[in-house]
Amino acid sequence: MATPAPKRWSRLLTLIGGKDIGFVGKWVLLASLVGIAGGLAAVAFEHLIQLVQENVLVGPAGIEGESSEGPWGWRTALILLVPAAGGFVALWLAVRFSPESEGHGTEQFIRTFHEKDGKVRKRTVAVKALASAVTIGSGGSGGQEGPVCQIGGGVGSAIADGFKLPERDRRIFLLAGGSAGIGALFCAPLGGALFAPEVLYKKPEYEGEAIIPCIIASIIAFTTRTTLTGESRVVAISPEVREALAFRDWRELLIYLALALLVTVVSFVYVKTFKGVHRVFERLSRIPRPVRGALGGFLLGALALAISPIAGEHGIFFGGYALMRGSIAGDIGVLVLIVLIAAKILGTSLTIGSGGSGGMFAPSLAIGALTGALVGEGAAQLFPGLGLEPACFAFVGMGGFFAGVAKTPIASIIIVCEITGSYELLAPLMLVSVLHLMFAAQWSLYETQVSGQVDSPAHAGDFVVDVLERMKVGDLFEGFAKPTLVSENTTLRRALEIVSTSRSSYFAAVDKDERLVGIFGLTDIRRIFHEQAVADLVIVRDFMVEDVVTVTPEDDLNTALQRLNERAIAQVPVVDANNPRKVLGMLSRNNLGAAYHKKLRELKRAGATA
């Protein structure tokens, strides 16, 4: 008889350190498991795309690389109809089984972290893989990286759920799975590890807790992929070109500055075009979504045919890796570069904006490489004496473009260096990336990004705790009036008179030396309010609570809030740290809340000024 799944999980947990997995078990063993699963998922996804490509477009239509160049005739109909059919099928799968599989995967990945507690439905992994394979395999101008990020994130989320980890850990393993997918597919273990924690935010900020599991998962996923496929580079560069990738003359920085300005303009056009096309398709609400996907695919095919007389052997189908290689190799003329930049922007917008399932990562790298090559070719012709190598600018354009448009400067720089195998242009790559990030601060490919952790629902409680822990109870008591102390021997009648003239809800009961002996509140008095016959017989000691929860001026406000919550009370006595029976004042929830909001405003003002 088969062992029930919960028992199998329990035994596995015991093997790796018990149900309280601990630091090593959680961040090393489970992150490694996520890495293996993410690496396998990336390899399987890549093979699935290749299978669809060969059988629905490349073979039947005779497509070579990414171009639609060739004799017109019956294949023309295939170039128009196959992407349309792919768009229809992909949208039908998403609408029918998993709406979150629609569009580019990184957007949903970010939304899942911020808004959905890191939880991914298991069917989403399968539907996203199939819908993306159909979209890209039928010629869609989308990348594999966005989908594999979402797929890997789904794997990480499922593993966290399987081990019944808390919500915070599930979010972290979502990121680890995304890093595993990117690290494996790009053959970029470090860049992949940094991408998922960085892409969540518009400003330069990381999800710090996730770095270690993301690094482990990405390394394991990369190793899994290279072991199975033998590949260690996704953009093959000849040794001659690689040797030419170098920064030699300080005057080149002026050309790279021009490149930073141009990639900023192109990224603005890219983002606005994509969002504009997406809005147009959203307004076609009377048309079923699968039909809208078919329309996007048909227009993509028409665009590919329209540019083929100019673009020749280069085209806009698939992710754009051939365009990256051609740009770096210097195989594309200036006029063709301009046409391909515009066509790739529009083609990607038609594919993903219509609802197709694909990524924006690879097309963005391709557009950046084309833009860099354009600047390099133009500068080489204008300044022949500098001996400029256009391949250098194509290389820098790749990373610099995506760094600003996706708000991932560190990950973009490292990924481009890893996928090409060269770090010789690190200085200009950093310059262009940072400048583009500054110039393009007002727009981003990913609408679900938030400005920083303070704006993320995932960190709402963490930020409150962080702010409260920075403040001491004593910070609130400067200038406070002396508290109202009530003797334990005070009669009920006199206590009612004191309460009626006070704004407090709780009152400290003290002995003859004004030492704290108890506390009572309005609720305690309300129970005996109508006992007028004994109003002069009952004293405070008869109805006060002797077990008093207190705080000292040295305690932080988070500790004070915890003690208020423990007893579900509105006020707590503040006592001297050296004399715990000497009452200094009463701290209320209102005092605490006002101090928190004041501090929050100060932090926001300081952040805005910075």
Order of helices and strands: HHHHHHHHHHHHHHHHHHHEHEEHHHEEH
Report the oligomer: single chain
Using the coordinates above, name the CATH class of the largest domain.
Answer: Mainly Alpha
- Helix residue percentage: 55-70%
Radius of gyration: 31 Å
Give the spatial strand order of the biggest sheet. 1-2-3
Number of strands: 5
Q: What order do the helices and strands come in, and which of them pair?
A:
Elements: H1 5-15, H2 22-61, H3 74-97, H4 105-115, H5 122-137, H6 145-162, H7 167-185, H8 189-198, H9 211-229, H10 239-244, H11 252-283, H12 289-311, H13 321-329, H14 334-353, H15 361-382, H16 390-406, H17 409-420, H18 426-439, H19 460-469, E1 485-487, H20 492-500, E2 506-510, E3 516-521, H21 522-526, H22 540-543, H23 557-567, E4 571-575, E5 583-588, H24 589-609
Parallel strand pairs: 1-2
Antiparallel strand pairs: 2-3, 4-5
Helix pairs in contact: 2-3, 2-5, 2-6, 2-7, 2-9, 3-5, 3-12, 4-6, 5-6, 6-7, 7-8, 7-9, 8-9, 8-17, 11-14, 11-15, 11-16, 11-18, 12-14, 13-15, 13-16, 14-15, 15-16, 16-17, 16-18, 17-18
